[in-house]
Write a structure and sequence with these properties.
The chain has helices at residues 21-32, 80-96, 108-115, 131-137, 145-155, 157-160, 168-181, 185-196, 207-218, 239-255, 258-274, 291-302, 308-347, 365-382, 392-395, 423-428, 433-439, 445-448, 450-456, and strands at 9-15, 34-38, 65-66, 100-104, 229-236, 354-358, 408-413, 418-422. By secondary structure, it is α/β, with parallel strands linked by helices. The strands form 2 sheets. A 6-stranded parallel sheet has the order 3-2-4-1-5-6, sandwiched between helices. It has a two-stranded antiparallel ribbon with strand order 7-8. Strand 7 and strand 8 form a beta hairpin.
Length: 464
Amino acid sequence: MSASITESRAIVIVGTTGVGKSQLAVTLAERYNGEIINGDALQMYDGLPIATNKLPIAERKSIPHHLLGCIRLEEETWTVGKYVRSATAVIEDVIARGKLPIVVGGTHYYTQSLLFEDSLVKPGPTEDLSAEAQEKRWPILGASPKEMLERLWVVDPEIAARWHPNDRRKIRHSLEVYFTSGRKPSDVYREQQRASSKHMPWHDIVSENASQETKTKDAGQSSSPLRFNPLILWIHADLDKLSSRLDQRVDQMVDTSLIDEVQSMHWHLQAQERSGTLVDQSRGIWTAIGFKELLPYVLACAGAEITFKKSEGLKKQAIELTKTATRQYAKQQQRWIRGKLLRALHENDTLEKLSILDGTELSQWLQNVEAIAVDAVDAFLKGDPLPKSTLLPTLSKDILVPKAKGHIKARYCDICNITMMTQQEWDAHPRSKKHRKATRTPVDWQALHPRAHHQDNLPAHDDR
């Protein structure tokens, strides 16, 4: 950024879905003359405002919101690289106008990529090509995950072994790296990891890199891995207690016309297909939780005549699927924050940038979230140390201690037709109920009970 990292201050709010990130962002923006930058990949699209939980206009309190609903449905899906460039430009503009940027959103892959300079693979000369243009140039990028993975095994077996056969995004991205850079993705990722890590026990970094880092510090150059000077506010909530709130929110979304919203999006899909435009529903807004779960119900109701009882059954099932997917997403988000974001902050000696807020109990929001956030922001803007978080030792105890990671390698059980990604999963699989049932030797009842079998095959006795 143009300003120094000390001057380029920004607030970054993270947390699982349903913990009140947007609410806190608006509160802080009102208090500190801030503007909000969206960090949720799906909220960037102009569609499904209920399903993607866009903050209603009335609740934005006239605070400017950037990168929210800015991508039309017919536009090309954004990459994380495009998001980082756009968000960085917005942050620079907000700072230049004397205001405080506040980044908020649940796509923590985007947030972490925005925070750290070396979190993204350096783009090749064709990185800005749209997905359609890339697939025209390299047709394999438009193929099925199975076909792409087969190609990846040819060009880079090391990285191919790391990805699940159904993980289209990672497989495709690895091939993009190969095509755009002309290098093996495993080499690029390894180089990137070494460039962004400092802790020798966790990463096998040659001493030459460590020596160079020391020279850089001695020369007085900035060695910060961060793009700007952030205060990271993590609204943490106990997942068991959060689950009931998430279920209630889904019910509220259904009451607020979520089903009508899905129907409208389906009509848009039909219009696109009639015009000859194929829509990739595995990317972008079409992957939003609620759309894919409720669509079968919407289609059933729009098709042949359906009884009220069956309709209500399908609706109940779709709502339950939406609730389950939402709870699973919250778990994924929390795993990312603890396993990736906290670890990255620790590895780069920047944990002092983090303040953890307890959002478990809504009845204690003002004292446990808002008041502590205000104290942290006040200290941050004054350049003082942040107040110590009582939650950090508990939430990061398995993060701050170097911990050997299980080696990631895809292994396939052809008996159960399932792929496992770690040695731990592979070792445990033979003991699983599914595998034991599939490999169980059929019981030969004839051999065990020959007399009973013999009696069953005797001719019926004639009493006449």
